[in-house]
Amino acid sequence: MRKLSVLLLSVFPAIASAAWETNMPRGVTPTSEIAYDIHMLIFYITVVIGILVFGAMLYSIIYHRKSVGHKPAKFHESTKVEIIWTVIPFLILVGMAIPATNALIMMEDTRDSEITLKVTGYQWMWQYEYLEDNISFFSKIDTKSNTARRLNSGVDVTKVDNYLRDVDNYVVLPTDTKVRVLLTASDVIHAWWVPELGGKKDAIPGYVNELWVDIQEPGIYRGQCAELCGKDHGFMPIVVKAVPKQEYYKWVSIQKTNKVAENK
Question: Which of 116, 162, 170, 182 is the most exposed place for a label (fewest CB within 10 A)?
């Protein structure tokens, strides 16, 4: 048995390492953290309810079956019981609705943002515009992944770093800063989704959606288009690079300098 387990782990390492990826990430923003906490709270509530309900059913099935001599009880409606099993679920729902409502209100509050990032979806890339600093660029799948994905490319995709999850231009955002993200599209409906940032909103032509992020930890965060938008829908990755504020403003300065040089 031990040899078989070693063989399976060596043949299917990806399956072995991904076997326990069954839950949503906690994330690195206030919105992603509160979404995770509420998700887990409601999950545990439903687990307790499930144990009680199915436990009572199993007990009744085993100990009150006809084969052990039990006869069915003869009774009619009970107003007291009906009130109890109506009030208890109502209180449980209210108890879950209050934190969920507070979370939704918080998620939609884009006031007091320091930076506004406009995101426009195209078939099949993203355009990013930093409205306060007049910086704009397109971001599409990186050349290595784009070459490797093609039929008969001859490229071993296992040797391509971050295959199908990397881009040519990263979105750079500062940490510990509230960033308002405006979402729209130029052609069909797309969806901008970075799981660890807790943001997933549709980008709709002729309409502006919005969300906000406040990234607490520096790092690289990857996502993708989450709305079927055409034949290359699966090749619209998103990469957000979160850096400290000082490094971010240095990056902004470099982008502005490069723009001036290009316009000369």
Answer: 162
Q: pLDDT per residue over 111-169, tens digit each?
A: 999 999 999 999 999 999 999 999 999 999 999 999 999 988 899 999 999 999 999 99
Mapping DSSP to helix (H, G, I), strand (E, B) and coil, where does residue 165 land? coil
> pTM for the complete prediction?
0.81
Radius of gyration of the CA atoms of the chain, in A: 26
Domain ranges (residues) in the chain: 30-107, 115-263
Half-sphere exposure of 239 (CA within 13 A, CB side): 18
**Domain 30-107 in this protein, CATH class:** mainly alpha
Classified by CATH at the fold level, domain 115-263 comes out as: Immunoglobulin-like (2.60.40)
Give all strands of the β-sheet with 199-203 in edge-to-edge order.
Answer: 171-174, 237-243, 219-225, 190-194, 199-203
> Residue 137 belongs to what H/E stretch?
strand 135-139
Query: In a 3-state reduction of DSSP, which class is residue 183?
Result: strand
Residue 205: DSSP 8-state: B
